[in-house]
Each structure stands twice: as structure tokens, then as C-alpha cells.
Amino acid sequence: MTEVIDQLAVIGRLLRAENVLIVSHKNPDGDTLGSAGALLHALKGLGKQAAVLCADPIPARYDYMNLELFEGQFHPGFVVAVDVASQQLFGDAISAYTHRVDLCIDHHGSNTGYADELYLKPEASATCEIMYELLTAMNVEITAQIAECIYTGLSTDTGCFLFSNTTASAHRVAADLMEAGARVQDLNTILFENKSRARMAIELVALQNLEYHFDGRCALIYLTRQQIAASGVAANELEDITSLPRKIEGVEVGITLRQLPGASYKISIRTTEGVDACAIARRFGGGGHGRAAGCELEGNLENAKAAILAEVEKALTRIHGAQES
Amino acid sequence: MTEVIDQLAVIGRLLRAENVLIVSHKNPDGDTLGSAGALLHALKGLGKQAAVLCADPIPARYDYMNLELFEGQFHPGFVVAVDVASQQLFGDAISAYTHRVDLCIDHHGSNTGYADELYLKPEASATCEIMYELLTAMNVEITAQIAECIYTGLSTDTGCFLFSNTTASAHRVAADLMEAGARVQDLNTILFENKSRARMAIELVALQNLEYHFDGRCALIYLTRQQIAASGVAANELEDITSLPRKIEGVEVGITLRQLPGASYKISIRTTEGVDACAIARRFGGGGHGRAAGCELEGNLENAKAAILAEVEKALTRIHGAQES
């Protein structure tokens, strides 16, 4: 089992570490890469060898972080995972390096405790917020480069300070980062205002396929394999389309069905307070959080829709009573 | 001409004022109403009579601010305008009260100086940010109610801390407001995640009508009068659709054409750095800012499109040279 350690112990480990391999999770997002970048630049500033390892390619939009990737240039003496909740999230391609992780720094309450030592702050809005406090406590100079890495994770994990995990502390750190030289305006454009033409095309399809059910309390969109392929949209660009149906006025349950290569449907469930998304997902062997959960359903579109809508109706009936038909 | 006064003088005016009429601009947004609400609740907390006046109805989503509207319940002794850049923005319906404004509190650099006295901070991200500093300097207790009013203007004017006017100070104020009890999560849902079904319908039309020009450097959407009417979308819900085309990867000029009742087209121009939106708008008698401007074009859709695209092409050619056809 992992040993949970405090900030002072983490600082001790990092200051003593040499040849540090910093590992991000697969399908990397802004928080895992921003945390890795901030730690990378901090350690290099302290004169240490360090590099970042990730099972998947780093999307080009993060180029400004100047992540130095691990390509065997040193023999790792200390392995630190950032923002990685479980060992499965590393990806098989890099298991040679992740079979033994010395330290994990994370904000996921669901962290499985796979690392020798764990520094976990589930109340932090992002792992990058933890990283900022850590580097500040280490007296590392927050350069503009480090500030931009941290801002990346802080802003992407909070949906630019919109999501419910946004804390007062997240806002204060953002203010500090701006004063440290992070070009927040440029980053916001890169991170939040650059939709590909393929993404626009799939949004059109999603809106064409938008359906309302149960007096508008449920909105549903679906995307077939063929529609996804025709748009040319990348998988990571599809993720946040699942938040679209729930944003509509009056909608308590937003459902997104995406057809998977194996012909089953991946179902994403987003709910307002009061409707337990996870309970719905669990009926089909899925899981997640109270307001965001998912599951997979075999069969064709009509069957998958009918099955999930039946469970949504039960959940809404429990709250509002049976509807007039 | 107006006299520009400092914070100390403003505090003196407000503390001495009785029967205060607080005036917002027409087509009210979160910043003018949030500023008005914060000042209203602060003055009432000081035992004064006060009420808010606006030429247009207050949208229901702002109900949580508990704005007390002026309905003749006292004879105004002091008139203060908040977030109103020019006298025209009051609206004719309330000109009996706005022919003489004692004090204007504003963050618009373009403020025309119509009030007897002006407290202007163009560097502030929102008038609500000025209001927070002011009330704090007055030793007013920032109640949860006041904090929610201020958060409303701060978040809406910055697009939830996304736009280029977002300052470090805006983030710090947001942190203070959360600690003062503002239910930021609920407000974010109300302000940013509640799209009407009509708005979804018009977004579908906009995406169906999306065109790319000049190697994808220009994206254009248009909405006819008939399409707007068929969707049932309210005018204020259409405003931010103009930001849609510019958000697409590679797009330097985003154009939105909306047909007006008189059959002319209202053109909104949004640009990335390097393309002067205002210069394009001025060619047709319009105006605005460097990256957001607008104008009106007579004629049918084809004529309006051809005219604006010709000017966009000239602007892009000045930057990139002539395109291969």
C-alpha cells in the first residue's frame, strides 16, 4: 500500500531526487501536462536532470509549455506521477517505467494508491494548484514558463473557472500566475477558443440529432460511428460535447450516445443536482460521479436509446412523480 | 462638462446622498445590474432609501439579485448611473430621471462625460470590480447578497474569466466574493449554462449556414429574419452568437450577418490580433473596437455578403499578400 505523505516530506523527496522521470496519464489533458511541465522546469532550474513521459503524443496546442520528453537520455532515479489516479491510466506502452512509481502527486479522491508514496489533496481544483503551492513552498522562482504550465491545468480542469470545482484558492493562484508573467490571454485563446472545423461539423450533427424527452427534462444527442468518421473529429475533441445537452434550460438529464468501433454505444450521463447520474449508469454496469457518469450499451441505436431513456424516466419519476402522457 | 472625481470624493457623495435613484443602461446586462444591485443593497444597509431604474425589463434569470425597482416610492434626491457610457444608453422612456445625473460610476474608456461627476476606471474589468473596491473602502459589509451582485457583473463582463479584459485583480475579487458567501456554482449555471431551446435551434441554423472563405481565414454565418423568427430566440440571446465563427481554428475574421426587420443586414466583425475589425466596419459607416466591430448593409443577403467579403479579402491581402485562386 501507498504511504500518504505531507508537503514537507514531498519537498524532501524532490530536493533529493536525481534523474527525475515525470509521468503523465495517457490521453493527456491540460492538468497532467501542466503539472508535469511546471515540475520539469522547476527541477531543471534546480540543476537536475528531468524529463516527461507520456504514453500518447502531446497535442500540438501545448507546444508553448516546452515539455522535454523522455527519450532515454538518462537512467531514471526517481519516478513521479502527476495527476494519474490509477496505474491503468499510464498506458501499457510505458509500463517498463511505471511498474514502480516512487511518488504520486494528485487531486483525484479516487486515487488507487499505487505509488510508494502519495501526496493527495482532493479539495484542490487541479493538480496544478497543488503544484503551485508545492513549488512556492520550495522557494522555486515561479518563472513565466512555470506560470503558464500551472495556468494550463488550473484553467482547463475548471473549464476556465466555470465548473463546480473552482475554488477561491484557484482564483487567487490565477491572479498570482498573471503577475508572474503567464500570457493568460494567449493561453485562453489556445485552450478555449480554437475549435477545429471538424469539431464544428460534428456539433452540427449533434444539434441535428438533438431530441427532447419527458417534458424537456431530458435532452439526448447521438453520434453514429459513420457520422463521427465523416466529420474527421479527433477523439479528444469529442469529450466535452457530452456537456452540451445538459446546458439547455429545463434539462435535468443530458444524455450523449456515441457509437464505438465495436458497434456498442458509449453513454454519457450529465445531470443537475437532484438526479443521481451514477445510479443510472450503474444499472448498466457503469459508474462515475453524482452529476457525471457513463456506461456502455450493446445493440443498435434504437435499443440503446430505449434502454437508457427507460432508466432516465424512472429517475425523473422518483423526483417529479409520474408524467401525464 | 463632467468633473472627474476620486474614490474619496465618491464615498463622500454616497454617504451624504438620500433617496438615491440608481440607473442602469437599457438592454441591461450582468454588469450594469450587478453594480446597481450591489450599490442598492449597500445603501439600504446604511439605512437609506434607494431603488433601481432601468428602461427595459430585468431578465428573470437575475431574480436572485433582488433588485428593488423604482416605482415612484420616493422623490429622488441623488441620481447615480452605473456602467452607462453615454446618455443615449439610458433609453428615452426614463429621460425624465436621466436629464441630470449627479454621479456616474463606469469602466468604459469611451464614457462621454454626461454626468455632473464621473468616477471612471477604464483598467477595471467590470464596473462591478470598481463597486467592490468602493464598497470595501466605505467599510460596507460585503453580504452574500452584495457578493452575488458583484460576481454577476465580474463574471459576465469577462466571459467567466476568459476574455482579454480579465485582470489579476478580477480573479482576486472573485476569490473574496466566494468567501463572502456568493453561491458561485449556482450563479455560473444560471449565467453561463442555461441555453434556451430556441437558442439551440438558432445555433443549428447558424452551423448549417456556416461558410469558409479565403483558405479558411474567414468564417461567415448568416441568419435571415425568417430563421430568427422561426427559432423564437430573444434578441439578447443572439448577441454572443457573433463570437462563434471567430473561435474556429485558423479563422482570422469571423463575420455574422443578421437580417434586421427593415430588411437590411446587421454585420458583426470579430478578428484575431493583426486584423483591424474597426477599419473594415468603417468602410460601411460602422465602427467599434480593433477586434470587435459592426456595421449595417442595405440589400439582400447575396449583396451584403459580397460587399463585406470584398473588404475582408482586402484586409487579409494586406497581411498575407494575394491568395492563389
Automatic annotation (TrEMBL), chains A, B:
Endpoints of the signal sequence: none
Annotated ranges, domain DHHA1: 231-316
The record's section on InterPro entries has:
DDH_dom, DHH_sf, DHHA1_dom, Oligoribo/pAp-PDE_c-di-AMP_PDE
GO MF terms on file?
A: nucleic acid binding
Q: SUPFAM superfamilies from the xrefs?
A: DHH phosphoesterases
One Pfam family name is DHH
**Residues in domain DDH?**
19-153
Indicate what this protein is called per its UniProt record.
Bifunctional oligoribonuclease/PAP phosphatase NrnA
